């Protein structure tokens, strides 16, 4: 049950009633609705190797109030901590670690507007999907290297409830725990070790 809670096991069953039961306990991996701020970071490795084994990720979410607008900056630090594999298959070697080629998508509240970004190797695109606004980019991390991706965007002001902003971070299935820092005006207010979905509040 712990593995299910941490999304290392997901279920899909053809029986509609059984599938609804799995959805009720969040064991089907669906993108969830939420009344407040929302963040789901989804990565896909296109390198053809198993560089994910050696990757670590640290995420910072920084909130600022500018007039009537709430401005949020998400910074993602990705690090590959191991040397490259010898990927010469003719010599019979196993190519586990090579350049991590990362198709990265950020699911955020519907109506969020991108202000700026840096770190993506292609032009960042924005579209709507599954009831969210999605920011879509691509980056790479070399063995023994690191890459920083940053995006700044506005979120709908009506998400704030009595001066408090509810926040839901939905974990990508299959990942180990990751470090998330929450900041307001550049100052840390909360640190989360994300092992499963997390609901919290930001004052």
Task: Tell me what the structure shows.
The protein is mostly beta strands and 203 residues long. It is built from 2 helices and 12 strands; from the N terminus they run H-H-E-E-E-E-E-E-E-E-E-E-E-E. It has helices spanning 2-5, 16-24, and strands spanning 37-45, 55-66, 69-80, 100-109, 113-118, 125-129, 132-141, 146-155, 165-169, 178-184, 187-194, 198-202. The chain has a 6-stranded mixed beta sheet, with no helix packed on it. A 6-stranded mixed beta sheet has the order 5-8-3-2-10-11, with no helix packed on it. A hairpin with a 2-residue loop joins strand 6 and strand 7. The two termini are 33 Å apart.
Which key phrases capture this entry?
mainly beta; six-stranded mixed sheet; single chain; about 200 residues; 12 strands
Integer-rounded radius of gyration:
18 Å
The counted number of beta strands is 12
The share of residues in extended strands comes to over 45%
- State the end-to-end CA separation: 33 Å
Q: What is the string of SSEs from the N terminus onward?
A: HHEEEEEEEEEEEE
- Quickly count the helices: 2
**Average of the residue pLDDT scores:** 92
Summarize the structure.
It is built from 2 helices and 12 strands, in the order H-H-E-E-E-E-E-E-E-E-E-E-E-E. It is mainly β and 203 residues long. The longest helix is centred in the first third of the chain and has 9 residues.
Helix-strand blueprint:
Layout: H1 2-5, H2 16-24, E1 37-45, E2 55-66, E3 69-80, E4 100-109, E5 113-118, E6 125-129, E7 132-141, E8 146-155, E9 165-169, E10 178-184, E11 187-194, E12 198-202
Parallel strand pairs: 1-9, 2-10
Antiparallel strand pairs: 1-4, 2-3, 3-8, 4-7, 5-8, 6-7, 9-12, 10-11
């Amino acid at each position: 049950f712990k593995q299910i809670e941490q999304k290392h096991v997901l279920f899909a069953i053809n029986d509609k009633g059984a599938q609804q039961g799995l959805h009720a306990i969040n064991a089907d991996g669906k993108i969830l609705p939420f009344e407040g701020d929302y963040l789901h970071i989804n990565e896909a490795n296109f390198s053809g190797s198993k560089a994910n084994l050696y990757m670590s990720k640290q995420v910072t979410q920084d909130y600022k109030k500018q007039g009537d607008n709430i401005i949020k900056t998400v910074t993602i630090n990705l690090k590959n901590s191991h040397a490259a594999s010898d990927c010469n298959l003719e010599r019979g070697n196993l190519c586990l670690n090579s350049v991590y080629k990362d198709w990265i998508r950020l699911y955020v509240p519907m109506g969020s507007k991108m202000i700026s970004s840096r770190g993506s190797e292609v032009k960042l695109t924005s579209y709507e999907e599954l009831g969210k606004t999605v920011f879509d980019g691509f980056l790479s991390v070399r063995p023994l290297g690191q890459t920083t991706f940053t995006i700044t965007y506005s979120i709908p002001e009506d998400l704030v409830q009595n001066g408090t902003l509810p926040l839901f971070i939905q974990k990508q299935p299959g990942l180990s725990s990751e470090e998330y820092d929450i900041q307001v005006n550049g100052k840390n207010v909360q640190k989360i070790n994300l092992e499963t979905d997390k609901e919290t509040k930001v004052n």
